[in-house]
Amino acid sequence: MLTTVISASLLVPGAAFAAEQGTTTATSVSKEGSSTNSKAEHKYKEADAKITKDEAVQRIRKLFPHLKDAEVQSVQFGEVNQYPIPNENVWTIIMQITEANESRSYRGKVAADTGDVLSFQLSSSGYSGERQPKPLNYPPKVSKEQARELAKAFILQASPSLKTNNINENTEDRYIAYNTSLFGPVRYSFAYDVYAEGVKVQGGDIRVNVDGNGDITEISRQTPASEFPSSKPKLTLEQASKFAKDNQMAELQYIPERRGARTTKWFLAYSPLLYNIDAQSGQIMDHVHQLGESGRTYKSVPATASAYKGFKGQADMTSEQAGKIAEDAFSIPKDLKLSDTSLRSDWGNTKGKVWTLNWMGEEQQRFGNSIYAVIHAKEGIVISYNNSQYRDNSKKDGSSPAISREDAEKKVIDLLNKVYPNASQELKQVVASDSSSNKTNYSFTFQRFYKDIPVSGDTVSINMDLQGNISNYNANRSDVADKELDAIKHAVTKEQAMEKIWNNTKLELQYASSRGDNPGNLAEPNVMNLVYVQSLKDNPNTPIVDATDGKWKKQWYDGAENQFSINPIDIKGHAAEKELNTLVQFNVLSTDESGKVNPNQVVTIGDWWKMIAKAVTPYYEGYSSSNEIKQPFADIDEKNDYYDAVRFAIQSKWLKADIAQKLNPEQEVTREQFASYLVTVAKYSKVSNELASKLPSVPYSDASQITNKGDVWLAVQLGLLKTKDGKFNPKDKVTRADAAVAIMNLVYMQGKFDQNVTNHNMY
What we know:
alpha+beta; globular; twelve-stranded mixed β-sheet
């Protein structure tokens, strides 16, 4: 997923701050910028731990009684399975429960200075052993409100360093949306912001899951900083706001509208660059990129003697041909052999398949290290390359790297011309400050342009170690046609867009984490700064301004945008009030602009498949598979609004694609048709077909009007639909309220069916 609102981690000191007259004086910021963070490297040692490893284990056992007899597999200081090793003062604990022939491992982290449990997760598919509770489907034993109280109490118990006034629930965290589904075991998800000295800690949130039994199944929290600077800013909010307004930045970009894995169309929009402002000095908090008047600055990519050749064959290239392209470009060692290859569909790419390639030697097989590449099978474009072989590439104190940044850049430019089509014409290099390379590698970023306008998401990132070896190469290049971009016109000026952005911008005093000159290097010390954070206040999910009509727009539609705290105004006293309210809270149904859910509105075929897809998973639009059908029905293709829901239904085996037939998504659903849909979702279609041949009739006075007696009879017997006054009323239309009741009937039947509704065999 692409983020178009750029935070502090993507910006650089770029404009001078002139403080207002008064008692506060802010330091001016030069174009080159300067770091306010200490560059001194510090590694925690086990001797620094105030909590012993035994005490850390006991903390876990006390919080999770199910693990009171679990065997401790290992307790290690720090996070040792990650490179570079994060600079964290923690205990990493692995525990295991073994019963009969079943064993499961559990992993967590405990802060070694405070004893706070930072992360732990019990299996989401059921806990090991009869001693432990099983996941509970509807109806749950505890309500959401009860679960909320349990979650908050657990956080305070798990985190001795926190008090009640240190945490505050964040009901709009997207984590909640992605962890919310009507089907499957009941799980309540909560997110809490953390405060220090009354100031919110950016990125310091705590996330907790509670199951339907009221048991905590997961807690996660970033390792907190051990020290915080003063919470008293030298810069007032008014001064910070003036600086932010005077130095507003937004970039006009070609932006793809994405629904899950596919792009539905392209448009021009202004993407705001929102950055953090140091509350003590007035500097923009970033030490990576340089900024111009509109944001990031770029420089041209020169052509070199190396030239992209690609692949000119009529059919897809072979794995050997793909391997040769990577070996020539990245100088893969001769002792490594191309040992594992596969041809697959490329996620989100409509132009064909890609080869995934792995090179290994005997030593690599022993330690699990390899070289991995992805090559487009038709065009020979290198999509990605990763060399995970371990090397100690850190720059020793007082030593110089084997290759300078200047020479590294020349080598990278030469590679780019060799593996990327028209690199010198299409790409520009994102200018970085001199301090942007860390002690282990050089990083370079390139942006694709079309007629001097950036194409959002089309970037190339390259990392090179200090010995001159390419460690990572990742290229995103959309297959959008030039004529499609040429057809896009914009009427909104940059000034108009920036005014709209500013009117929707808020500044808030927060603590923000920084790792000196190397924000992405977890081995660097985690330093907290007091900053003013800029963000959009009313529409964080629509973060860009359409350059055609000036309206706020979002780029990525994934179905997971929960509508929080909505109380429909037109369902009070309705017979299906409870069911409708539940579906609104789970974002299966949404209200209109006036706050109405319109319970008596008739449901169309397309509406139904959207509703049941959202009920099963809020992010159904993001699912894709290697055998994805581009046009499942004569009237449904990738540009159709119902495509993702229909695709999900096909992958779930609720529908069978037939391009010769129409689905008629705008057709209103009858009760008889609805009965068939419900039986299919419940996975009883075969049973229904068998019943249909054996049922002499159905016991309804309007049986003569029913064609599919098996589906109707079974839907009623399963309690999914009801009769009225001895009639089924097969020709009646299904309303949103009817659909809500039926979905909740399915939800409450979980655990009573032979197959789970959510077992949809996506891959």
